[in-house]
Amino acid sequence: MATTTLRSETDVVLIGAGIMSATLGLLLKELNPKIKIEIYERLDVAAAESSDAWNNAGTGHSAFCELNYTPQLANGEIETKKAVKIAESFEVSKQFWAYLVEKNLISNPENFIKSIPHMSFVWGEENVDFLKKRYDALQQFGLFKGMEYSEDTEKIKSWMPLVMEGRRESQAFAATSMKIGTDVNFGELTRNIFDYLKTLQGVELHFHHHVKSLKKQEDGRWRIKIKDLATGDVKKVRTNFVFIGAGGGSLPLLEKAGIPEGNGFGGFPVSGQWLKCINEDVIAKHNAKVYGKASVGAPPMSVPHIDSRLIDGKKALLFGPYAGFSTKFLKNGSYLDLPLSIKMNNMIPMLSAGFHNLPLTKYLIDQVRQSPEDRIQALREYLPDAKMEDWVLEHAGQRVQVIKKGEHGGGVLEFGTEVVTAGDGSLAVLLGASPGASTAVSIMLDLVQRCFSEQEKTAEWQEKLKKMIPSYGISLNENQALLEEVRNHSADVLKLVKV
């Protein structure tokens, strides 16, 4: 059957139907209701990859308990810069979500966000010393006001009874607790946003469509060739601006775009697995997100945690993630993703990054070789009385860590998110992993400033941005009164426990 070629013209194309595209699409539509947006997703449903609750995105990262965001430096001091930035970014996300609820753009916030304490737990004298230093270092910032620290057995038992069951009390341990933590189902939130966007004039959402090529035209616009996987029809779209938020699929599309700013970027895929509790009595005993310290050589997103979540309206209890290696860039990707991503312009950075991260390679090999007994033994470090029959293995999503050129020509493996932007602002690509979803609003606001700079500076857009994000342009870390105001307002609108 002959292939039909279709053509369309639009202002914005969003590639990937995850939390990033949903957030950017809604921001742009609120700022300019007349803007025309087309969204293309390879799968047949939104938020099925990185944004899905079972694929790791579910904590509501706010740096309250994630110890990898506060590394201890060689001089013994605790680095707090990243934790402060993430904590502030999450407050920005909550402000935006509260705005959406207040304007009835999305409803039933209790379906995607819940209040739950965020805790850290460590054992051993050295780790206890680290946690105390971390707690002391964070106390200088209002963002962490209300955090509690304890080495008292009874106090910690009251915070996390399941973690303390069967634990030797002669062992040194310590914990911190932040009551205003949250659990966020980003899959549910993403689908809610797209459900609203589909009702707006000038927005088209296409599932089961694969982007085959991107090419910059002489007039500065982009021509994108897209295949409808259901019919085989090919569509050619011309657009002023392209955002690629396709999770692990972003790197291959960046390479297809061919912008010079993308030279040297590579990716290192890391897969994940959870142990999922199937014993309702055990699930009911735990109501917190409890994070520990990562093993030596582990990627930061593999920090172990025993995690209460609300998924599809039901309470769940997960432990992990256990890291693994796959050459796929997406859970639904191809084993050829990694080899096909290696190009002449990124070969040296990728080889260099691999050579300088041999402990990570060894760690991943050890993780892949783990038996069910090995995984249960790791769980028992957090739940000493854990029984194998209460837990089953659940496959999580794929993460692609960013590799980029280092200062001296080598390669650097980055843990986090990075936006690569064309020099003229006509294309932006999101690469990387955690804490992406939780900081999506801040990331997309930064993108708006970069790629829509002239409009962003106008009084009209500034006024609208202030309505959506009351703290827009102001450091919450440096303005305690405003922080408390927006925190309380967000908590009220989103039906969370107030500060």
From TrEMBL:
<dbReference type="GO" id="GO:0008924">
    <property type="term" value="F:L-malate dehydrogenase (quinone) activity"/>
</dbReference>
<dbReference type="InterPro" id="IPR006231">
    <property type="entry name" value="MQO"/>
</dbReference>
<keyword id="KW-0274">FAD</keyword>
<comment type="similarity">
    <text>Belongs to the MQO family.</text>
</comment>
<keyword id="KW-0560">Oxidoreductase</keyword>
<dbReference type="GO" id="GO:0047545">
    <property type="term" value="F:(S)-2-hydroxyglutarate dehydrogenase activity"/>
</dbReference>
<dbReference type="Pfam" id="PF06039">
    <property type="entry name" value="Mqo"/>
</dbReference>
<protein>
    <recommendedName>
        <fullName>Probable malate:quinone oxidoreductase</fullName>
        <ecNumber>1.1.5.4</ecNumber>
    </recommendedName>
</protein>
<comment type="pathway">
    <text>Carbohydrate metabolism; tricarboxylic acid cycle; oxaloacetate from (S)-malate (quinone route): step 1/1.</text>
</comment>
<keyword id="KW-0816">Tricarboxylic acid cycle</keyword>
<keyword id="KW-0285">Flavoprotein</keyword>
<dbReference type="GO" id="GO:0006099">
    <property type="term" value="P:tricarboxylic acid cycle"/>
</dbReference>
<dbReference type="InterPro" id="IPR036188">
    <property type="entry name" value="FAD/NAD-bd_sf"/>
</dbReference>
